[in-house]
Design a protein that fits this description.
This protein is α+β, with helices and mostly antiparallel strands and 188 residues long. The protein has helices at 19-27, 51-67, 73-77, 94-109; strands at residues 11-15, 69-70, 91-92, 116-122, 128-136, 139-144, 147-152, 159-164, 172-175.
């Protein structure tokens, strides 16, 4: 039987970033480096939730979900995987939603990027999916293009695989998901 998830993800060892994120970092290097005001490797404290911040997060999630029309990278760019901000046509796939939410929340609220983490999960049907994790003092919450609500990570139907490092957004860590049963080895 799987363990119940707590309010915070248990983050494991460093792992390889998704290929799309690696390529994104080549075109957006400033978004993949630790904040310049932090000592290398130092993590940021989870953000304190206030009624104003809760409202801004919920509004941003809903706004981006309404604004962007879902379209695959293959349809848009003729490639299997491309992590980028949605073009002016406002079309994109899951990681494009997550990237835009991350950028807008950082700009509007000042939330440190160490608390806005791109996260890769597996949906119930086995398909990979990208979402945004918000780290707060009350737990971690998910902003997802497949759900209009902002929900606690433990209340999602996903198997969590990996996410950006809190200390360095160019690095990724495994998520030790209490709901995952591992048999043998799993390739990232």
């Amino acid at each position: 039987m799987a363990e119940a998830r707590g309010p915070f993800m248990v983050v494991g060892v460093t792992t390889t970033p998704p290929v799309g994120h690696r390529l994104f970092c080549h075109t957006h290097p400033d978004e993949c480096r630790p904040a310049s005001d932090r000592v290398a490797g130092q993590t940021v404290e989870p953000v304190k939730l206030t009624p104003e911040l809760i409202s801004a997060v919920a509004e941003t999630n809903a706004e981006i979900n309404r604004r962007i029309t879902a379209k695959s990278d293959h349809e848009l760019y003729g490639v299997e995987e491309r992590w980028t901000y949605p073009p002016e046509s406002n079309e994109g796939d899951c990681e494009d939603y997550a990237l835009l939410k991350r950028k807008i929340l950082h700009e509007r609220t000042g939330i440190d990027l160490g608390n806005l983490l791109l996260t890769v999960v597996r949906k119930r049907d086995g398909e990979g999916h990208a979402i945004l994790t918000l780290r707060t003092q009350r737990g971690e919450f998910i902003l997802d293009n497949l759900d209009r609500r902002v929900v606690a990570w433990r209340d999602t139907p996903y198997r969590f695989l990996k996410r950006q490092s809190v200390a360095d957004p160019g690095r990724w860590n495994r998520v030790e998901d209490g709901n995952a049963v591992l048999v043998g080895s799993v390739k990232d």
